[in-house]
Design brief:
Blueprint: E1 15-18, E2 34-38, E3 41-43, E4 54-57, H1 61-70, E5 74-81, E6 86-94, H2 96-108, H3 110-142, H4 148-158, H5 170-173, H6 177-191, H7 195-200, H8 205-224
Parallel strand pairs: 1-5
Antiparallel strand pairs: 1-2, 2-3, 4-6, 5-6
Helix pairs in contact: 1-2, 3-4, 3-6, 6-8
């Protein structure tokens, strides 16, 4: 009977915390900039057998990737963000020789990587221009009364890369009618009503939205019906 080989399991990632409060090692009583949590409590890097590793801050993705690959032992360093209530990556711990090797490799092909980044930036910029045009066209198709320059402004805002707005969602990139509608409604709410003033006055979001809902609906419905301007 043939032996079925088990697939190799992915190695577990070692996570180290960047200290943001005072602490002491549960093993030796010392402290430091980094700690690793164990069942017995926090441990310093030496007691966690990670003291020989060197800290490499985030900021250079290629350097981090290469150092991690070259290091037999590595760890991810995270810090608790009290404002966002989550852990955020700060860098890695890796063997000094691995970091040096990665730095040499990055230096040797820095020009090539810079040229690739420039090409990628141009490609992304072209894609963004094309997508904004498609999004503006989808707005005009669904809301023929929306002025062309306004449709372009809505598309520019909603489809900004990295904004997290509706235009960058999966539905937005697919030009889903509901996503297009949400982008138009959001623009009308902020630009054509006193919604922002209500928020600045201290009114909560839901109450402010309820206050301007009829005004927003009137404008959006008019644009949908092909009416560009409403009578005052």
């Amino acid at each position: 009977m043939a032996t079925v080989e088990r697939p190799e399991s992915r190695p577990q990632r070692i996570v180290v915390l960047a200290a943001h409060n005072a602490w002491t090692c549960a093993s030796c009583g010392e402290t430091g900039d980094f700690l690793r949590m164990h069942k017995a409590g926090p441990m310093c890097l030496d007691c966690a057998d990670l003291g020989h590793l060197e800290y490499l801050p985030s900021g250079d993705a290629a350097l981090t990737r290469r150092a991690t690959k070259a290091s037999r032992l590595s760890a991810v360093v995270v810090r608790w963000n009290t404002r966002r209530h989550r852990y955020e990556r700060q860098g890695i711990l890796a063997e000094p020789a691995a970091i040096e090797q990665a730095a040499r490799e990055c230096l040797s092909d820095a020009d090539a990587r810079a040229r690739r980044r420039e090409r990628d930036e141009v490609r992304r910029a072209d894609q963004d221009v094309q997508f904004r045009g498609e999004f503006a066209a989808a707005i005009r198709e669904q809301f023929p009364g929306c002025p062309p320059d306004r449709a372009e402004a809505i598309a520019f805002h909603a489809a900004a890369r990295g904004s997290g707005r509706v235009g960058r969602s999966a539905a937005g990139r697919a030009l889903d009618p509901d996503a297009v509608h949400l982008a138009v409604v959001a623009s009308v709410r902020h630009v054509d009503t006193g919604y922002d003033d209500l928020l600045m006055s201290g009114l909560d979001r839901q109450s402010a939205r309820a206050h301007v809902r009829h005004q927003v609906d009137d404008i959006v419905d008019a644009w949908r019906d092909g009416v560009a301007m409403l009578d005052g």
